[in-house]
Amino acid sequence: MSLRITRAGLLDTVQDGGRHGCAHLGIGPGGAMDPYSAALANTLLGREPADAVLELHFPAAHIVFEKAIVIALTGADFAPHIDGRPVPMDHPVAVPAGAQLRFERQISGARAYLSVIGGLEIKPWLGSYSTHLKAVCGGFEGRALRANDVIPYREDHHLPDITDLAVLPWKALHVVDDRKDIGFLMGPEWNWMSETSRQAFEAGRFRITAAADRMGYRLDGPALKTVRAEQLVSSGVCAGTIQLLPDGQLILLMADHQTTGGYPRIAQVISAHIPLLAQKNPGDSIHLKLTQLGAAQEKIIAQKKYLQQLQIACKLKIDEWRSLPNRP
């Protein structure tokens, strides 16, 4: 059976852990903007962290589950309700057939993630389920979800005895730290900036402008200057790369970034803090904090270690729940 979109959201798409190994073709990895929250939704159900999920923006889609299923919602809190009853974030939830998921208001964050037990039946493109909007490939027909779209469940888990909504008794924690600051490493062209500009970069606050999407965020802050007049040959970039524009302002690249760029790469946001950026909205401000490489590695290792432990534990929890004679 399937889930069905009854009302389209703002920009809801199928995403996963990314399309890696295609940069030489000019195709970036894409994937979930908040890879940690997406992985968390999957691991709560014992699934592989990089598997396909729905990435939702507010106002988000209305979704009907045509057969009983177990779901998990993570990331931004859009006040989810199922058939008028509030459901918690970061918990598995058993959902009866015919139930409708709606989101009432934006409480916090920018992107929520929905995972279903067993996964969604989506055809991969270049080894990934992620939607590449510009190429119109991957995901669900290479586009954002629309009303009346139907996405089959990948596996039939035979859950006919779920007759009422039930929150299962385990949840996930968040191990994304330093929420007040965004950690960064010096980029290859860090020293192209003047000393005054380097100090301003570290001391200043930068506002995410309305020119913000899955490709990147335009930042508004103190004008920065370079001390080198030479041009940069187009070079590789990745999610979290911060480029200095000719007008002294910054572009912070996100999931759907291009594969190369010609602006100076003055800094690189650490991988562990990409999820923090993904949950920012236009108008939010960020402060960038210089981080040592060893500390950055420790943070991302801690995230991956937690997800691995959670996946193992949740697989056991799911199996235990299935075996209960009077399960909810």
Explain the overall architecture:
The chain has 328 residues and is of the alpha+beta class. The chain has two domains: 2-173 and 304-323, no CATH class; 182-291, Beta Barrel (Cyclophilin). The protein has helices spanning 35-43, 195-203, 274-278, 293-323; strands spanning 2-7, 13-15, 53-56, 62-65, 69-77, 80-82, 85-86, 92-95, 100-103, 108-116, 150-152, 166-167, 182-186, 205-212, 216-220, 235-236, 241-244, 250-253, 260-261, 265-269, 285-290. The strands form four sheets. Strands 13-20-17-18-15-14-21 form a seven-stranded mixed barrel. Helix 1 (35-43) packs parallel to helix 4.
| Count of β-strands | 21
Inertia-based shape: elongated
Strands across the major sheet, in which order? 13-20-17-18-15-14-21
Major beta-sheet overview = 7 strands, mixed, barrel
Task: Tell me the domain tally.
Answer: 2
Q: State the helicity in percent bands.
A: 10-25%
- Element-level helix/strand string: EEHEEEEEEEEEEEHEEEEEEEHEH
Give Rg in angstroms. Answer: 21 Å
| Strand residue content | 25-35%
User: What structural class results from the helix and strand content?
Assistant: alpha+beta
- In round numbers, the mean pLDDT is 93
Helical region count? 4
